[in-house]
Amino acid sequence: MPESSSQGTPFGGARFQGVVTPEAVVLEFDSAGLGSRTAAAAVDLTIQVIVGLIVATLGVILDFGFGGSAGWVAVTFFTFVAFFFGVAYPAVFETLWQGRTPGKAMFGLRVVTDEGAPITFRHAAIRAATGLFELLGSSGVIAAFAIFFTKRNQRLGDLVAGTLVLRERTAARAPVATAFRPLPGTEDYAATLDVSVLTSDEYLAIRAFLLKASQMNNESRRKIGEQLARQFVERLRTQPPGWMSPEVFLVCAAAAYQRRFSVG
To answer: Greatest CA separation found in the chain?
Structure first.
Protein backbone atom coordinates (compact mmCIF):
# COMPACT_ATOMS: atom_id res chain seq x y z
CA MET A 1 0.00 0.00 0.00
CA PRO A 2 1.15 3.65 -0.13
CA GLU A 3 4.00 4.37 2.23
CA SER A 4 1.91 6.84 4.17
CA SER A 5 -0.77 4.22 4.91
CA SER A 6 -0.41 1.59 7.57
CA GLN A 7 -0.72 -2.06 6.61
CA GLY A 8 -3.98 -3.69 7.44
CA THR A 9 -5.95 -0.49 7.09
CA PRO A 10 -9.62 -1.49 7.29
CA PHE A 11 -11.96 -0.80 4.41
CA GLY A 12 -13.47 2.62 4.69
CA GLY A 13 -17.23 3.01 4.99
CA ALA A 14 -17.42 6.16 2.88
CA ARG A 15 -19.53 6.06 -0.24
CA PHE A 16 -17.45 5.89 -3.42
CA GLN A 17 -17.94 9.18 -5.26
CA GLY A 18 -16.22 8.34 -8.51
CA VAL A 19 -16.36 6.25 -11.65
CA VAL A 20 -13.95 4.29 -13.78
CA THR A 21 -13.57 5.87 -17.18
CA PRO A 22 -13.05 3.83 -20.35
CA GLU A 23 -9.32 4.31 -19.78
CA ALA A 24 -9.83 2.77 -16.30
CA VAL A 25 -8.90 6.01 -14.54
CA VAL A 26 -10.77 6.60 -11.31
CA LEU A 27 -12.18 10.10 -11.37
CA GLU A 28 -14.21 12.23 -9.05
CA PHE A 29 -17.01 13.86 -10.98
CA ASP A 30 -19.93 16.20 -11.10
CA SER A 31 -22.91 15.49 -13.30
CA ALA A 32 -22.99 18.01 -16.14
CA GLY A 33 -25.60 20.74 -15.78
CA LEU A 34 -27.79 22.46 -18.31
CA GLY A 35 -25.28 25.21 -19.15
CA SER A 36 -22.33 23.01 -20.11
CA ARG A 37 -24.55 20.53 -21.93
CA THR A 38 -26.24 23.29 -23.91
CA ALA A 39 -22.86 24.76 -24.90
CA ALA A 40 -21.59 21.32 -25.98
CA ALA A 41 -24.80 20.71 -27.93
CA ALA A 42 -24.40 24.05 -29.70
CA VAL A 43 -20.92 23.04 -30.91
CA ASP A 44 -22.19 19.67 -32.12
CA LEU A 45 -25.19 21.29 -33.79
CA THR A 46 -22.93 23.69 -35.68
CA ILE A 47 -20.84 20.78 -36.98
CA GLN A 48 -23.96 18.83 -37.94
CA VAL A 49 -25.48 21.76 -39.81
CA ILE A 50 -22.27 22.46 -41.74
CA VAL A 51 -21.84 18.83 -42.76
CA GLY A 52 -25.55 18.54 -43.50
CA LEU A 53 -25.51 21.57 -45.79
CA ILE A 54 -22.50 20.22 -47.65
CA VAL A 55 -24.16 16.85 -48.21
CA ALA A 56 -27.49 18.45 -49.18
CA THR A 57 -25.72 20.71 -51.67
CA LEU A 58 -24.05 17.70 -53.23
CA GLY A 59 -27.46 16.08 -53.54
CA VAL A 60 -28.88 19.08 -55.36
CA ILE A 61 -25.86 19.21 -57.69
CA LEU A 62 -26.25 15.53 -58.51
CA ASP A 63 -29.96 15.99 -59.15
CA PHE A 64 -29.25 18.80 -61.62
CA GLY A 65 -26.59 16.63 -63.18
CA PHE A 66 -29.31 14.16 -64.07
CA GLY A 67 -31.33 16.96 -65.63
CA GLY A 68 -33.61 17.26 -62.65
CA SER A 69 -35.25 13.98 -63.61
CA ALA A 70 -33.68 11.90 -60.89
CA GLY A 71 -35.53 13.27 -57.89
CA TRP A 72 -34.77 10.10 -55.98
CA VAL A 73 -31.14 11.23 -55.78
CA ALA A 74 -32.07 14.38 -53.93
CA VAL A 75 -34.51 12.49 -51.71
CA THR A 76 -31.84 9.98 -50.80
CA PHE A 77 -29.36 12.67 -49.89
CA PHE A 78 -31.86 14.66 -47.86
CA THR A 79 -32.84 11.48 -46.01
CA PHE A 80 -29.20 10.86 -45.22
CA VAL A 81 -28.82 14.43 -44.00
CA ALA A 82 -31.80 14.08 -41.66
CA PHE A 83 -30.51 10.77 -40.31
CA PHE A 84 -26.99 12.10 -39.81
CA PHE A 85 -28.31 15.28 -38.21
CA GLY A 86 -30.49 13.51 -35.67
CA VAL A 87 -29.10 10.07 -34.91
CA ALA A 88 -25.88 8.94 -36.55
CA TYR A 89 -23.64 11.83 -35.48
CA PRO A 90 -24.09 11.50 -31.68
CA ALA A 91 -24.45 7.72 -31.71
CA VAL A 92 -21.29 7.06 -33.73
CA PHE A 93 -19.14 9.59 -31.91
CA GLU A 94 -20.25 8.52 -28.42
CA THR A 95 -19.68 4.86 -29.27
CA LEU A 96 -16.24 5.26 -30.86
CA TRP A 97 -14.97 8.12 -28.68
CA GLN A 98 -15.81 6.69 -25.27
CA GLY A 99 -18.92 8.71 -24.56
CA ARG A 100 -17.84 11.97 -26.18
CA THR A 101 -18.73 14.05 -29.20
CA PRO A 102 -16.60 17.00 -30.36
CA GLY A 103 -18.83 19.34 -28.37
CA LYS A 104 -18.65 17.23 -25.22
CA ALA A 105 -14.89 16.86 -25.54
CA MET A 106 -14.49 20.63 -25.85
CA PHE A 107 -16.31 21.18 -22.55
CA GLY A 108 -14.91 18.17 -20.68
CA LEU A 109 -18.11 16.10 -20.76
CA ARG A 110 -18.50 12.35 -21.11
CA VAL A 111 -21.47 9.98 -21.23
CA VAL A 112 -21.27 6.87 -19.02
CA THR A 113 -23.78 4.32 -17.78
CA ASP A 114 -25.55 4.78 -14.46
CA GLU A 115 -22.89 2.52 -12.92
CA GLY A 116 -20.05 4.58 -14.36
CA ALA A 117 -19.09 2.08 -17.06
CA PRO A 118 -18.34 2.92 -20.71
CA ILE A 119 -21.45 3.13 -22.88
CA THR A 120 -22.11 0.82 -25.82
CA PHE A 121 -23.70 1.51 -29.19
CA ARG A 122 -27.06 0.50 -27.73
CA HIS A 123 -26.84 3.23 -25.08
CA ALA A 124 -25.70 5.81 -27.63
CA ALA A 125 -28.39 4.89 -30.15
CA ILE A 126 -31.17 5.11 -27.56
CA ARG A 127 -29.89 8.50 -26.41
CA ALA A 128 -29.69 9.75 -29.99
CA ALA A 129 -33.15 8.51 -31.01
CA THR A 130 -34.76 9.91 -27.87
CA GLY A 131 -32.86 13.14 -28.35
CA LEU A 132 -34.36 13.51 -31.81
CA PHE A 133 -37.83 13.27 -30.27
CA GLU A 134 -36.90 15.77 -27.56
CA LEU A 135 -35.58 18.22 -30.16
CA LEU A 136 -38.38 17.92 -32.71
CA GLY A 137 -41.15 17.50 -30.17
CA SER A 138 -40.40 20.55 -28.05
CA SER A 139 -37.35 22.33 -29.49
CA GLY A 140 -35.33 21.00 -26.56
CA VAL A 141 -37.68 22.28 -23.83
CA ILE A 142 -38.44 18.75 -22.60
CA ALA A 143 -34.73 17.95 -22.35
CA ALA A 144 -34.03 21.20 -20.50
CA PHE A 145 -36.77 20.58 -17.94
CA ALA A 146 -35.63 16.99 -17.39
CA ILE A 147 -32.01 18.03 -16.87
CA PHE A 148 -33.05 20.78 -14.50
CA PHE A 149 -35.39 18.70 -12.34
CA THR A 150 -33.71 15.28 -12.21
CA LYS A 151 -31.28 14.55 -9.40
CA ARG A 152 -28.35 13.72 -11.69
CA ASN A 153 -29.14 16.16 -14.50
CA GLN A 154 -30.48 13.48 -16.85
CA ARG A 155 -32.58 14.23 -19.92
CA LEU A 156 -35.19 11.74 -21.09
CA GLY A 157 -32.68 10.02 -23.35
CA ASP A 158 -30.42 9.41 -20.35
CA LEU A 159 -33.27 8.05 -18.26
CA VAL A 160 -34.37 5.66 -21.01
CA ALA A 161 -30.83 4.53 -21.89
CA GLY A 162 -29.60 4.31 -18.29
CA THR A 163 -26.84 6.88 -18.75
CA LEU A 164 -25.64 10.17 -17.34
CA VAL A 165 -23.31 12.91 -18.52
CA LEU A 166 -20.31 13.73 -16.34
CA ARG A 167 -18.17 16.82 -16.17
CA GLU A 168 -14.63 15.60 -15.67
CA ARG A 169 -12.57 17.70 -13.33
CA THR A 170 -9.61 18.94 -15.33
CA ALA A 171 -8.48 21.60 -12.85
CA ALA A 172 -7.69 19.29 -9.98
CA ARG A 173 -4.81 19.97 -7.62
CA ALA A 174 -1.41 18.66 -8.66
CA PRO A 175 -0.90 15.12 -7.37
CA VAL A 176 1.29 14.62 -4.32
CA ALA A 177 4.21 12.24 -4.77
CA THR A 178 3.45 8.88 -3.16
CA ALA A 179 5.75 5.89 -2.78
CA PHE A 180 4.39 2.37 -3.18
CA ARG A 181 6.32 -0.56 -1.74
CA PRO A 182 5.64 -4.28 -2.21
CA LEU A 183 4.21 -5.89 0.90
CA PRO A 184 6.51 -8.24 2.81
CA GLY A 185 6.81 -11.50 0.92
CA THR A 186 5.92 -9.99 -2.47
CA GLU A 187 9.21 -8.24 -3.22
CA ASP A 188 10.59 -11.06 -5.39
CA TYR A 189 7.41 -11.27 -7.45
CA ALA A 190 7.30 -7.48 -7.95
CA ALA A 191 10.87 -7.61 -9.23
CA THR A 192 9.80 -10.01 -12.03
CA LEU A 193 7.19 -7.64 -13.49
CA ASP A 194 8.10 -6.11 -16.84
CA VAL A 195 6.35 -2.75 -16.48
CA SER A 196 8.08 -1.24 -19.51
CA VAL A 197 4.93 -1.97 -21.52
CA LEU A 198 2.77 0.25 -19.29
CA THR A 199 1.95 3.78 -20.39
CA SER A 200 1.95 6.69 -17.96
CA ASP A 201 -1.86 6.79 -18.15
CA GLU A 202 -2.06 3.14 -17.18
CA TYR A 203 0.22 3.73 -14.21
CA LEU A 204 -1.92 6.70 -13.18
CA ALA A 205 -4.99 4.45 -13.28
CA ILE A 206 -3.37 2.06 -10.80
CA ARG A 207 -2.10 4.94 -8.67
CA ALA A 208 -5.51 6.62 -8.54
CA PHE A 209 -7.21 3.43 -7.40
CA LEU A 210 -4.66 2.68 -4.69
CA LEU A 211 -4.84 6.21 -3.32
CA LYS A 212 -8.65 6.16 -3.18
CA ALA A 213 -9.14 2.55 -2.10
CA SER A 214 -9.50 3.31 1.60
CA GLN A 215 -12.28 5.80 0.82
CA MET A 216 -14.42 3.23 -1.00
CA ASN A 217 -16.96 0.87 0.47
CA ASN A 218 -16.06 -2.80 0.45
CA GLU A 219 -18.02 -3.75 -2.65
CA SER A 220 -16.75 -0.86 -4.80
CA ARG A 221 -13.18 -1.47 -3.68
CA ARG A 222 -13.39 -5.18 -4.49
CA LYS A 223 -15.04 -4.78 -7.90
CA ILE A 224 -12.79 -2.01 -9.16
CA GLY A 225 -9.68 -3.72 -7.81
CA GLU A 226 -10.58 -6.95 -9.59
CA GLN A 227 -11.37 -5.09 -12.81
CA LEU A 228 -8.02 -3.30 -12.85
CA ALA A 229 -6.07 -6.39 -11.77
CA ARG A 230 -7.55 -8.51 -14.58
CA GLN A 231 -6.65 -5.83 -17.09
CA PHE A 232 -3.05 -5.47 -15.95
CA VAL A 233 -2.37 -9.18 -15.37
CA GLU A 234 -3.10 -9.60 -19.07
CA ARG A 235 -1.20 -6.44 -19.99
CA LEU A 236 1.93 -7.54 -18.12
CA ARG A 237 1.61 -11.17 -19.24
CA THR A 238 2.09 -12.43 -15.72
CA GLN A 239 0.51 -14.97 -13.40
CA PRO A 240 0.35 -13.78 -9.77
CA PRO A 241 0.61 -16.33 -6.98
CA GLY A 242 -2.72 -17.91 -6.13
CA TRP A 243 -2.78 -16.34 -2.67
CA MET A 244 -2.22 -12.79 -3.95
CA SER A 245 -5.23 -10.48 -3.86
CA PRO A 246 -5.97 -8.09 -6.74
CA GLU A 247 -5.07 -5.06 -4.65
CA VAL A 248 -1.74 -6.50 -3.54
CA PHE A 249 -0.94 -7.27 -7.19
CA LEU A 250 -1.67 -3.64 -8.11
CA VAL A 251 0.66 -2.45 -5.34
CA CYS A 252 3.39 -4.66 -6.79
CA ALA A 253 2.79 -3.25 -10.28
CA ALA A 254 2.83 0.35 -9.01
CA ALA A 255 6.00 -0.25 -7.00
CA ALA A 256 7.74 -1.86 -9.98
CA TYR A 257 6.75 1.05 -12.23
CA GLN A 258 8.02 3.62 -9.74
CA ARG A 259 11.30 1.77 -9.34
CA ARG A 260 11.85 1.60 -13.10
CA PHE A 261 10.77 5.14 -14.05
CA SER A 262 11.44 7.03 -10.79
CA VAL A 263 7.97 8.57 -10.58
CA GLY A 264 5.74 9.38 -7.62
So the answer is: 82
